């Protein structure tokens, strides 16, 4: 058995930290919930925090959010696929967009549903994920403003999500200036400059965030307290809102070096042998999770005496040295996780999810 635990009090603590930070700086923000993979109980925990906006990259998750709290502003946070345009208009109050043909389809569908669909136009600032090329921005906005059932509420950008390009003052000033240029060019008001994500929070804490940036989309900082500039934890936040517990199903003293001719393992790797390990033994604990659930590289030990040795599809092998902790079959060993590891766990039907104060 393995299970994931969400600590409600730590989640609330991190939320209050962020909410105070953003309110003190006159910044609107929403919680990005894609990590939760539509898990209803966890979505309810987030909704109960009192946040006014929840953002997700899966329309089925936004549908659940609307069922939980119809008044929550929902935002679809990637350019919408054309085959779900009707659902995007139905369940997402806002969507992030980069393609004119998609915006035409959104406008037509919004007209059918007797709605005005709100959009934030994303621009390319160097990380080379989604975004309109800056040289095309004026022409792009001119065409979007002509769409009858589309309301442009913002300009936005993503950084650090693809190639690791970090935000800085210059890039975010550019984003704010584009907003001003568009407003002057078309005599339109664009309320939001959505240039903030978890990676941008350290700039805000150091008073290096340009004043024009007034909207943040935050997930990783809420659940992990992550400072992506230092790869550490933001001071004053919890990094253990989520913890993974996995049960020991075997523990025995075994050689450190396998015996027999070594070939390629199921991960396509051939093991390198440390010659100093010949003749040495240690206690090896087998846990009931594996690559099917999480990449071991995304696990963070909570016990310094534990070392992840390897994994197969559904078993994780730990080297516990001389077993000073006295682990036995049936004991649970807990881990923190990196974001991508938690994402895999949340998407696994094999891992139970629970909430604890």
From TrEMBL:
InterPro entries: Ala_racemase, Ala_racemase_N, PLP-binding_barrel. One of its GO terms (cellular component) is cytosol. The keyword Isomerase applies. Keywords: Isomerase, Pyridoxal phosphate. One of its GO terms (molecular function) is pyridoxal phosphate binding. Residues 9-225 form the Alanine racemase N-terminal domain. It comes from Fodinibius salipaludis. Its cofactor is pyridoxal 5'-phosphate. Transmembrane segments: none annotated. It comes from the Bacteria. This is Amino-acid racemase.
């Amino acid at each position: 058995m393995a299970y994931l635990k969400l600590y409600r009090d730590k989640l609330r603590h991190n939320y209050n930290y962020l909410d105070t930070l953003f309110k003190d700086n006159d910044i609107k923000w929403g919680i990005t919930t894609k990590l939760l993979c539509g898990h209803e109980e966890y979505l309810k925990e987030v909704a109960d925090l009192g946040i006014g906006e929840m953002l997700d990259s899966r329309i089925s998750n936004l549908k659940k959010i609307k069922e939980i709290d119809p008044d929550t502003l929902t935002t679809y946070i990637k350019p919408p696929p054309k085959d779900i345009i009707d659902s995007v208009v139905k369940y997402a109050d806002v969507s992030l967009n980069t393609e004119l043909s998609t915006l035409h389809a959104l406008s037509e569908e919004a007209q059918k549903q007797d709605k005005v669909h709100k959009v934030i136009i994303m621009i390319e600032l160097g990380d080379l994920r989604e975004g309109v090329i800056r040289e095309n921005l004026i022409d792009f906005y001119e065409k979007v403003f002509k769409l009858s059932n589309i309301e442009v509420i913002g300009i936005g950008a993503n950084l650090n999500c693809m190639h690791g390009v970090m935000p800085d003052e210059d890039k975010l000033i550019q984003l704010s200036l584009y907003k001003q240029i568009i407003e002057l060019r078309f005599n339109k008001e664009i309320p939001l400059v959505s240039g903030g994500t978890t990676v941008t929070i350290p700039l805000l804490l150091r008073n290096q965030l340009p004043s024009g940036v007034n909207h943040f989309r935050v997930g990783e900082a809420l659940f992990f307290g992550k400072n992506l500039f230092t790869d550490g934890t933001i001071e004053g936040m919890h990094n253990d809102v989520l913890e993974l517990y996995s049960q020991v199903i075997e523990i025995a003293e075994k050689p450190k070096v396998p015996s027999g001719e070594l070939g390629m393992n199921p991960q396509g790797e051939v093991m390198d042998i440390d010659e100093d390990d010949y003749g040495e033994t240690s206690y090896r604990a087998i846990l009931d999770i594996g690559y099917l659930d999480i990449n071991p590289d995304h696990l963070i030990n909570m016990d310094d005496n534990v070392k992840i040795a390897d994994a197969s599809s559904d078993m994780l092998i730990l080297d516990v040295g001389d077993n000073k902790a006295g682990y036995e079959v049936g004991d649970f060993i807990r881990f923190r996780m990196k974001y991508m590891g938690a994402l895999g766990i949340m998407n696994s039907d094999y891992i139970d999810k629970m909430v604890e104060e």
